[in-house]
Amino acid sequence: MSKYKPFSTQRLIIRPVTIKDAPFILELMNTPKWIKYIGERHVKTVEKAEAYIKEKAFPQLEKHGYTNNVIIRKEDNTKLGTCGLYHREGKEDPDIGFAFLPNNEGKGYAFEANNKLMHVAKENYGLTELSAFTLEDNKSSRKLLERLGFKLLGIGNLPNNDEDLLHYHRVLDFNNK
To answer: Which segment of the chain is annotated as a signal peptide (predicted)?
Structure first.
């Protein structure tokens, strides 16, 4: 994991999630929007958040060099949310995902962090395309994906989940959004 380099924007530091982030991850995973749009993960203690990080984030980072990242505001070191790249079994392209605590929404942090993440995906990881999945009624997620240059392909599913999701796609060619 030492080969991974955090990255930053004008206002944000974006770095891989660590065990020390477990209390923050616990809070984030139990927000109403997380439960509604991402799903109930039954993570109700710091210990379960630690286990979730070890089981989900660390293997991705070790195998692919990318994972779920914590987004931190430089100004006051406040953890705002997460964004990451996820390589899912049976899927050709990794997908991008994000979540924020409610009081950090609508301030441009999601666009700033995910826009930088896409550039890092191309420059550092050699990725040329990304997917994204969201529920049809998650209007804020859909709006952000479209603002980031993702195009709706149709309906798709994630492994081990039969729920129909909107499947978005983006070629990482920053000359032509």
So the answer is: none
What confidence tier does 95 reach under pLDDT thresholds 50, 70, 90?
very high
CB 165 within 8 A of CB 133: yes
In a domain, 157, yes or no: yes
Query: Residue 20 carries which DSSP code?
Result: G
* Per-residue pLDDT tens over the stretch 62-94: 999 999 999 999 999 999 999 999 988 888 889
Bridge partners, residue 165, by sequence: 156
**The total number of structural domains that make up the chain:** 1
Q: State residue 4's pLDDT score.
A: 75
Q: What is the pLDDT of residues 108-121, one digit of tens each?
A: 999 999 999 999 99
Could you write out the three-class secondary structure of 72-140?
EECCCCEEEEEEEEECCCCCCCCEEEEEECHHHCCCCHHHHHHHHHHHHHHHHHCCCEEEEEECCCCHH
Give the C-alpha separation, 87 to 89, whole Å. Answer: 7
Structural domain containing residue 126: 7-171
Query: How far lies 148's CA from each of 38, 58, 60, 165, in Å?
Result: 20, 27, 23, 18
Strands (E), 17-89: 68-73, 78-86
